[in-house]
Specification:
13% strand; TIM Barrel
Length: 281
């Protein structure tokens, strides 16, 4: 199930430390299916009846307060539908942005004019649902001065973080002034990421269509240069080698991950917990 081009992925406040996070995160993988299928949810073996037919997955999901830490607006669907899905999963707040995937057909380049339009759409959604949406400003560091001006404009209007795509890699010197600005603001940087699966002993560092997408090694380089910055490695559930990613970044505590994506394998949550711990997920 997708809303606004991004799967609903559950995050939770670290204040709620009394429950079993591993069990909760595993169970929430079923939650999207629960919306559409009610109680008739297949288990991992493919049978219709779960091992414990008395277990109500949606009841378990609804017990906890949640924040969706990686969402988008303006990429398909409506904000009303997105809020509806959030309500049905008891997601209190959603962190939203609108990036420009300018490798796609008929998508304008990420110029200052265009990324301002994207941020205006996010600001509009924030005004419509001020108690639900937390905005992240999107910029293209190729335009350094304009990016810094846009960060100020959007933060002044209530945005709480930065979302960046693959126009510039996170360890590129063009990014340094933007990272330094976010350090001053004490705000997190959510960066689109791709770590391709290796083949025959070779690991391609970049995706086929996204030559400037940041890989795990790029995050490490940025984190070493700026240990006071906060980096969010996007969508370990988006395909690629998430286990390699977790092993690569595990010794850099200022790199966090989110598990959004459409390819969440059954062992991914356990692996992220094993390598990074609950406070970095």
């Amino acid at each position: 199930m997708k809303t606004e081009g991004c799967n609903i992925i559950i995050y939770y406040s670290m204040r709620y430390r009394h429950f079993n996070r591993r069990k909760f995160l595993r169970d929430t993988l079923y939650s999207a299916a629960g919306i559409m299928m009610g109680s008739n949810i297949p288990d991992l073996s493919g049978t219709k009846n779960p091992a414990n037919p008395a277990f109500d997955i949606m009841k378990e999901v609804m017990k906890y307060r949640k924040i969706d830490a990686h969402e988008h607006v303006g990429l398909g669907g409506t904000v009303e539908a997105q809020i509806d899905f959030a309500d049905r999963l008891n997601i209190e707040k959603l962190v939203i942005s609108k990036p420009i995937p300018d490798y796609s057909v008929n998508v304008p380049p990420a110029t200052p004019e265009e990324f301002r339009k994207c941020n205006d759409e996010v600001l509009s959604a924030m005004k419509r649902y001020p108690d639900r949406y937390l905005g992240q400003v999107y910029v293209n560091p190729v335009y350094g001065e304009e990016s810094l001006e846009e960060i100020k404009r959007c933060v002044d209007q209530g945005m709480v973080g930065l979302k960046v795509y693959y126009q510039v890699k996170i360890n590129d010197p063009l990014f340094y002034p933007v990272i330094e600005k976010m350090i001053d603001l004490k705000m997190i940087i959510l960066m689109h990421a791709v770590t391709a699966i290796g083949f025959a002993g070779h690991r391609p560092k970049y995706g086929n269509q996204q030559m400037n997408a940041s890989a795990a090694e790029d995050f490490v380089e940025a984190a070493k240069r700026y240990p006071e910055a906060m980096f969010q490695y996007a969508h370990t559930g988006g395909g690629g080698d998430w286990e390699y990613t977790c092993k690569t970044i595990r010794n850099y505590p200022n790199i966090y991950v989110d598990t959004s994506g459409s390819n969440n394998e059954g062992s991914m949550i356990d692996a992220v917990l094993k390598y990074l711990g609950e406070d970095r997920m």
